[in-house]
Design goal:
It is built from no helices and 8 strands. By secondary structure, it is mostly beta strands. The protein has one domain: Immunoglobulin-like (Sandwich), CATH 2.60.40.180. A 4-stranded mixed β-sheet has the order 4-1-7-8, with no helix packed on it. The protein has a 4-stranded antiparallel β-sheet with strand order 3-2-5-6, with no helix packed on it.
Length: about 100
């Protein structure tokens, strides 16, 4: 399968946490996420994924985590941190920010 560009949109609830993104067990990104309250965006990370690749998002070494498989028709993934838990939702449309 051919890898394509996917966008991970880290949105609400981040206050400077260290985040690590892994694909099929290999770390592909590390960064600090902090939500800008005016627009509801903390960080956007672009990664190359093939359908079925497993994406794992880990917050602050041992904190909240989420895992999902890349879907071929949903190239945008919204990630929110709510009450210490990560939620991740794949979608066909890019989130809009003001």
């Amino acid at each position: 399968m051919v890898a394509e560009t996917y966008e991970l949109h880290f949105q609400e609830g981040f206050a400077g946490e260290a985040v690590e993104v892994s694909v099929n067990g290999a770390v592909v990104a590390r960064f600090e996420a902090r939500t800008r309250m005016q627009i509801g965006r903390a960080h956007v990370e672009t990664v190359a994924l093939a359908p079925g690749d497993e994406v794992t998002i880990q917050v602050a070494a041992g904190g909240a985590s989420a895992r999902m498989s890349a879907e071929p028709d949903k190239k945008f993934i919204r990630i929110n941190l709510v009450n210490g838990e990560l939620s991740a939702e794949a979608t066909q449309t890019s989130p809009g920010y003001l």
